[in-house]
Design a protein that fits this description.
By secondary structure, this protein is an alpha/beta fold. Helix content is 25%, strand content 35%. The strands form two sheets. Strands 4-3-2-5-6-12-11 form a seven-stranded mixed beta sheet, sandwiched between helices. A five-stranded mixed beta sheet has the order 1-10-9-8-7. The mean pLDDT is 94.
Length: 253
């Protein structure tokens, strides 16, 4: 059995049933609002769901991810679309790239997957170090109130997904609420079947930290970001409330 956060089986089915148009549209809007400058970096770029529309909009982009399996899918999509982009296989907390960027984005709550707060703070330092002067970091997280959207603590659920290659993946998930409702964990066992025969098993161990607005704002200020604008995900200039995702637009001094 293979233990991996974003393993091969998960990566190959990542975009099934996903409509990211609202998220991508919002981040493209923020990029243009903040000057539309390149180069652009998407750490945690995954399969390129958000990265590719930026390339199609004319941005010069790089992508980075901790999962080689996700990057493999991204490379294939870039090749099929005849798009050019540097892709780096690195952990965000240890990110070390050759250049700095005018705009860095982490859409769709992905930053919350760094569930250890100390590691998250280190990631923000690495992100700031890779921004050009007056460059912007834009990312979003979900608040603790979002916990009610997930499965209850101790609940088990099942999912059946047909993959494009003709295989079927049966997933068993176990939910946990950790750190007094600040961290969600869902341990998933993914079993791939071909012609009714089990051919592969993979564990996908999902973590997400949920942040209070003031909590993350304090970390960003300590990290050294000079200007921090907060808005609702994904509606600019609307204050987040309740279960709303929170977008941070942070300028490097």
């Amino acid at each position: 059995m293979k233990h991996s956060f974003y393993g091969k089986v998960y990566a190959q089915g990542y975009e099934i049933g996903t409509d990211a148009s609202a998220t991508v549209g919002f981040y493209l809007e923020q990029w243009k609002r903040l000057g539309g400058k390149s180069p652009v970096l998407e750490p945690m770029c995954g399969t390129g769901l958000n990265l590719i529309p930026f390339l199609e909009a004319g941005a010069v982009c790089d992508g980075l991810d901790a999962s080689e399996h996700m990057l493999e899918v991204c490379r294939k999509k870039l090749h099929e679309l005849n798009l050019t982009c540097n892709l780096y296989h690195q952990n965000l907390e240890a990110m070390e790239l050759r250049q700095r960027y005018a705009f860095i984005m982490i859409p769709d709550g992905s930053f919350g997957h760094i569930s250890d707060k100390a590691v998250a703070a280190q990631c923000l330092k690495r992100l700031q170090a890779h921004l050009l002067p007056d460059g912007w970091l834009v990312f979003d997280v979900r608040p603790p109130a979002f916990m009610s959207v997930f499965g209850e603590h101790g609940a088990v659920d099942h999912e059946l997904t047909d993959y494009p290659d003709g295989s079927t993946v049966f997933t068993t998930g176990f939910w946990q609420h950790l750190e007094d409702g600040k961290v969600i964990r869902k341990w998933n066992k993914m079993e791939r079947f071909v012609d009714e025969r089990l051919v592969e098993t993979e564990v996908f161990d999902y973590y997400e930290r949920l942040y209070e607005l003031v909590e993350l704002q304090s970390i960003l200020t300590t990290t050294g970001f000079e200007e921090i604008h907060v808005t609702k995900a994904y509606e600019f200039n609307k204050p987040p409330e309740g279960k709303d995702g929170i977008v941070f637009c942070c300028r490097h001094a």
